[in-house]
Amino acid sequence: MANTTLFDPFTQSFTLLMRDGTPFNVTIPELDDFILYSVQISITYAAQLGASLIFLIVLLLLTKPDKRKSPIFILNSVALILNFLRTLLHCLYFTGPFSETYAYFSVDYSRVSGSDYASQVAITVLTWLLLVCVEVSLLLQVQVVCVTLREGLKRLIFAFSAMIAGLALAFRLALCVENSKYILSLEPEVSLQWLASASNITTSISICWFCAVFVIKLGFALDQRRKLKVGTFRPMQIIFIMGCQTLVIPAIFSIIEYWVPLPSIDSHVLTLVTIFLPLSSLWASASVDNRKRSLEQPMVHGKLLSSKSTATTGPLVGEKFLDGPLSPSATATTKTSNSSLPSPAKTHDQHINVDLEAQENE
Asked: Which of 6, 149, 262, 332 keeps 20 to 30 A from 119, CA to CA?
C-alpha cells in the first residue's frame, strides 16, 4: 500500500529502442513539454505568417502605381515576402520529420530528406536577408528625416547609424553561418547560445537607435508645430506615432524574452518592425492625399469666385467702378491678396514638407 501511495502516474516513463536496439527511457513530462513547445511555437509562427501575408496584400493594393518603384516600397515589400517565407518554413519544420517524436528523443534524423535540411538552412539565410531589408529601410528613413539638419551633424548621425546596423548584420551573419553548419552536421563547432544572444541584443540596440533618432528629430518638429498652433495629425505626426511603436513594442519583446518562457518570442521583433514600416508609410501617404485634395478645393472655389466677381463688376462711372474701395467685394479682394503673404506657420510647413517629399521620392 505504501508503494501505491507514493506512485505518481503522471511522472512515469516508457522505454524506446535506438536503431541498434539500445533502450532509453522517456518520461511523460518530457513528452508533454515537447508537445506543448511544438504547439506554442507553431501558433507563434502561424500568426506571424498570416500577419505578413495580410499586410503584403494591403501594401500592394493601397500603394499608388507611381510609388511602387521607390526604394522604400521595394524594401518593405521584399521584407514582407521574406518574413512570410521564413515563418512558412518554420511551420513546415514543426510539422515535418524533424519534429517526429522518435527522431526528437533519439536524435535519429536518418529519415529526414535533403530538402528538409535545405529548408532549415534557408530559414537562417532568410532571417539575415530580412534583417538587411529592415536595416537598409531604417537607414533610408533616418536619412530622409534628418535632411534638414546641418551637413556635419547629418553625416555623423548617418555614419553612426550605419556602424550600428553593420554590427547587427555582422552578428546575424555569423549566427547564420554557424547555425547552418550545425543543421548540416548536428555538431556545433562553437557555442550558439551566446552568439544568438549577442545577435538579438545588437538587433534590439540597432532598432532602438534608429527609432530614437527618428522620434527625437520629429519630436522637435511636433513641438514647433504645437507652438505655432498648426493643425495636428499631419503626416509627420503619423510618422512620429509609428516610430514610437516601432521603437517600443519590438524593444519590449526583445527584453521580456529573457524573463518570459515563451518559445521564439524574439522572432516577433523582426516581424513587428517589418509590419510597422509599411503601415506608417501607407498612413502618411493617405494623409498627404487628403491634404492635397483639401488644398485643391479652395483653389477651384477661388477661381470660380474670381470669374464671378469679374463678370458682375458694375459699369464705369468717371473711369471708376461703382464698387468703391470700401465695398464688400473690394475688401474681400484685399483680404485675399494679403493672405497670400508667407506666414511663419506656412514657412514651417514648407520645411516639414521637404522631409515628406523626400520620403515620397525615396
From this structure: 262
Amino acid 89 reads L
CA distances from 342 to 167, 227, 299, 331, 356 (A): 46, 18, 17, 20, 20
Would you say 94 and 36 are in contact if contact means Cβ atoms under 8 Å apart? Answer: no
**CA-to-CA separations, 70 to 137, 140, 251, 330, in angstroms, rounded:** 11, 11, 28, 48
Please provide the DSSP assignment of 313-330 as one string. PPPBSSSSBSS-TTSHHH
Nearest residue to 239 via CA among 207, 271, 205, 214: 214
Q: Which amino acid is at 340?
A: S
CA pair distance 347, 222, nearest whole angstrom:
15
Burial (0-12, 13-18, 19+ Cβ within 10 Å), 113: exposed
Cell numbers describing residue 45: 509562427
pLDDT given for residue 247 in this prediction? 64
Report whether 98 contacts 112 (CB < 8 A): yes
Q: Summarize pLDDT for 281-329 with one digit per residue, the tens.
A: 666 555 555 555 555 555 544 554 454 444 444 443 333 333 333 333 3
Give the separation between CA 351 and CA 248, rounded to whole angstroms: 28
Closest among 293, 294, 243 to 272, alpha carbons compared: 243
Nearest residue to 239 (alpha-carbon basis) of 228, 247, 227: 247
Give residues with Cβ within 8 angstroms of 275, minimum separation 6: 51, 52, 55, 80
Contacts of 13 (CB under 8 A, 6+ apart): 25, 26, 27, 28
Pairwise CA distance, residues 264 & 245, whole Å:
21
List, as one string, the DSSP characters of 229-242: T--SS-HHHHHHHH
Whole-angstrom distance, CA of residue 77 vs CA of residue 58 = 11
